[in-house]
Amino acid sequence: MKIAILTSGGDSAGMNAVVRAVVKVGILKQVYNLTSYLLLLTNFSRGCETWVVREGYEGLVRGNTEALSEQSLDEEPVDLPDNTSPDGTSFNLIHNLRFGDGDLLKDGTGDHPGTRSLKGRYIVRVGFDDVRAWFAEGGTLIGTARSKTFRTPEGRLQAAYNMIKEGLDALVVCGGDGSLTGADVFRAEWPKLVEALQSEGRITAEKAKLHAHLRIVGLVGSIDNDMSMTDLTIGAPTALHRICEAIDNINSTATSHSRAFVLEVMGRHCGWLALLAGVSGGADFIFIPERPPTSESWEDEICECIHRHREVGKRKTIVIVAEGATDRDLNPIKADHVKDVLTERLGLDTRVTTLGHTQRGGRPCAYDRVLPTLQGMEAVETLLEATPTSPSYMIGIQENKITRVPLMEAVAMTRAVSAAIEAKDFEKAMSYRDPEFKESFEGFLKISTLDQEKVPETQRMRVALMHMGAPAGGMNAATRAAVRYCIRHGHTPIAVHNGFRGLLDDEVHGLSWLGVDSWTARGGSELGTNRTLPSVDLGAVAAKFQEHQFHALLMIGGFETFNSLLIMEEGRRHYPAFHIPMVHLPATISNNVPMTEWSLGSDTSLNALVDACDAIKQSASASRNRVFVVETQGGKCGYLATVGALATGASLVYTPEQGMDLDTLRRDVRFLKTRYKLDAKGRSEGRLVIKNEVASQVYTTDVMQKMLKEEGGTLFDARSASLGHTLQGGVPSPMDRARAVRLSLKCMAFLEREHVKLLQQPVKARHATPDSAAIITIQSSSLKWVPVQEMVAHADMQNRRGKNPWWANIKELAELLAGRPQLIGIHSKDLAQYE
Ligand code: ATP
């Protein structure tokens, strides 16, 4: 199959990662079953051929007016002779390695006159190495444009002609709802376009038959996260990073001067960025298109809210306004107007910051590297499976599951949101967004305003809040949300400092609404944390529960927390004080809590790893031929190393689960040697090898580095870097903060429900069921409560990790994207010419 990919509409971070994945996976033509995370390397005998279309649909319409051979070239493209090896394998990848335009596309020197140029060539064949290291770049290297011509039938006819001329039969489109609609229109019209081209004599009957059907798949690239039927669009997480960085910076100056800041963020029809920035940035008030203020006068509403915050002692005010925010009569609400209201009515020193295009730019965050890579792979698979009658699909994501949804259904639902807003049916607009959106909005109200929703006095609880294990990004945000939920509902939040050790030492204090205000963006653990288990003195722990009259317990932490919960649940047989609802909210950079696919902190650490590796890779690349062995934390759990390898484009990864042996190392050295031999002369790059700190007791990072240095000879040099505690990250990522709020509020609601159930039992004989000691988990596409006893069967207690992690096959996937399996298989006679 000959696949072309284009990016269209507004650019977004992560688009390059999509292009990279589609090109690489297309060439390798592998089938990756994301549903079961099972890697099936089916048929390498013939990979797909891959093209990029420059400048979106406009490039498709313009096509190639100048042939490559007519240009003045300073370097011949690497297009090797057709001499297939006996099994067909090695030839295929070597042949598809480079077509020579990767650097021009990457450096944006495509139309440079006088040298090798892309001038007059919009549909460009690319090879495996042409897209190397693209995903650390922001925007889209193949360019995007809005094409008026493609909107016309004549334009689409020309686009169809150009595709057939280049022999293309499949198209991947990455863009917003307009771009995806364009893709669907194109596909629906395709048979007629082919017929017209044949009747006009522009293509032969044979070509018409060969190109009777067009395969199309859509990926959503949009910083607004405005597409229905997917939780996230490519580029939205990075934009959220940019906004939160700005809020964090503004927060300090706002506090210093006791100022108010009104931030305008992008989002014409979708308030996702404003909402999530509000949740993760700890804003006081937000304006979003889907849910305008409900009262007659929004000016009164915001003033009342901010006034109350100031009255309890808040020194700063952050208001976030989405670009498309309106009041309930659809009159636009603009940042300047909000500023005037706050200045005139409340006398606040108020400033406006419009973030504008800074939100689009910059290096993609970890999520915008992993998600587009997985979605790009799914896109290729979708194309391979497409039939003339199957609908065009859009690739989405639900929680942690890559999905395929009918493209036009998603576009129609997205448009229905705008229509509902225009019709002032805001309930309907909210209902068309994914459930998480609505939950996040309700969550924002719960934790940001001083409104009260007190439960009956008899149902009020004293809730103990505790951190355990190593600090992880999001722990403090989760605690802040829990404290504010408690206060809103009339419960008493109680901080237990320094875990069970602190409890035994009576380090127990009340927490206030204002006291936790700035915790959202703080890394580390505000409560203090350690690894002491309650078994240190279970009886004394129970006595402290009784003494402080805890009615419920929320513990935030990693594997130790699960273990502690288990110990206390089992302790219920002897200690009545443990007959209270108890929950564990997983938070650990190792992501080693069984059954949950994400823990708080796991995104922050991934971003810390990506940041460090980008810098290391730069240094490794500068010296052209350096392999860096990067050591990660993670205990005996390979999450950080494996998903980190996918997010950084590492060539090899070593995990404790898979271990290391001499045979593998020998093959890996062979792979690296082959890889460096195949690099274009003078264009070798630095490469990363990611190794978990305990992947092997014998082949340590030091041994690995020395071995690679020795074996690399003149081909490559080797260095090492141990990232250690830097991976705990400084400031928690916005995804971790938002997830922390959402999960923490769910934990609090769980504790409330279970407490009410207990209250129905006689006081002296209250007996909590095993279900009331549970862990909140993210599993595939949903959130699930798992009773601690049930989790035991899924835990590898000795190695302190889950038994079937979702990333088990990501190691192969990361190495596959580096071409390891194929390069190892290359016959030495094929390599001879590169020696
Ligand atoms: P963003 O959300 O960033 O605006 P978008 O994909 O919605 O992205 P649009 O400008 O709506 O951006 O569409 C991008 C391109 O897709 C258009 O310039 C046009 O070439 C093509 N396109 C959009 N709608 C159609 C359509 N109905 N028929 C044909 N082509 C279309």
TrEMBL record:
Name of the protein in question: ATP-dependent 6-phosphofructokinase
Assembly with partners or alone: Homotetramer.
Locations listed in the record: Cytoplasm
Region feature (C-terminal regulatory PFK domain 2): 462-835
PANTHER family given in the database record: ATP-DEPENDENT 6-PHOSPHOFRUCTOKINASE, PHOSPHOFRUCTOKINASE
Similarity section: Belongs to the phosphofructokinase type A (PFKA) family. ATP-dependent PFK group I subfamily. Eukaryotic two domain clade "E" sub-subfamily.
Keyword ATP-binding tagged: yes
Pathways involved: Carbohydrate degradation; glycolysis; D-glyceraldehyde 3-phosphate and glycerone phosphate from D-glucose: step 3/4
HAMAP family reported for this sequence: Phosphofructokinase_I_E
Enzyme Commission number(s) from the entry: 2.7.1.11
Active site: residue positions: 224
Residues annotated as binding substrate: 222-224, 259, 266-268, 323, 351, 357-360
Job of this protein: Catalyzes the phosphorylation of D-fructose 6-phosphate to fructose 1,6-bisphosphate by ATP, the first committing step of glycolysis.
Species: Lentinula lateritia
